[in-house]
C-alpha cells in the first residue's frame, strides 16, 4: 500500500511494491508490466511517480524497457560466487545505468560482473 504521508518518496514506495510482486512471482521473467497509466491508476499515483519507479527498477536491473511496448521483467541468472583473496578490492559502480561489481585483484587484473549476478565470498 502506498502511503502519501510516509517519509519515503512515493516513487520509492511504488518501486518497493513492484519489486515485491516480482519477488513473489506475480510478475515473471519476460512478462510485461502493466502500462504506466495502469500502474498510476492502480496505485493512485501520477505518471511522473510511476516513471521514476520504473527508472529505479531499470537501474537495479529488475526490468528493462522495450521500445513501443513498455517494461519487461528481466530474467535473473543464478548468482555466481566470486572468491576474494587478500589484497583484492570490490566496488559497486553504476556504469551504463546498470549496477556492476568491479573486482580489482591484487595482481592488478580487473573483473566486472552484473551486481545481481555475483556473490562475493572470502577465499
UniProtKB/TrEMBL annotation:
State the SMART domains in the record: HTH_GNTR
Q: Which GO terms describe its molecular function?
A: DNA binding; DNA-binding transcription factor activity
**Residue limits of the HTH gntR-type domain?**
8-76
Tell me yes or no: is DNA-binding among this UniProt entry's keywords: yes
UniProt-listed GO biological process terms: negative regulation of DNA-templated transcription
Protein keywords: DNA-binding, Transcription, Transcription regulation
Q: Protein name, please?
A: GntR family transcriptional regulator
Species name for this entry? Actinopolymorpha pittospori
Amino acid at each position: 500500500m502506498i502511503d502519501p504521508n510516509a517519509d519515503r518518496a512515493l516513487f520509492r514506495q511504488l518501486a518497493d511494491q513492484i519489486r515485491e510482486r516480482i519477488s513473489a512471482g506475480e510478475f515473471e521473467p519476460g512478462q510485461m508490466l502493466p502500462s504506466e497509466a495502469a500502474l498510476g491508476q492502480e496505485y493512485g499515483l501520477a505518471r511522473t511517480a510511476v516513471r521514476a519507479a520504473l527508472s529505479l527498477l531499470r537501474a537495479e536491473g529488475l526490468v528493462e524497457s522495450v521500445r513501443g511496448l513498455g517494461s519487461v521483467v528481466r530474467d535473473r541468472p543464478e548468482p555466481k560466487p566470486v572468491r576474494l583473496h587478500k589484497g583484492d578490492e570490490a566496488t559497486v559502480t553504476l556504469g551504463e545505468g546498470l549496477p556492476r561489481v568491479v573486482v580489482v585483484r591484487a595482481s592488478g587484473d580487473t573483473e566486472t560482473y552484473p551486481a545481481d549476478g555475483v556473490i562475493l565470498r572470502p577465499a
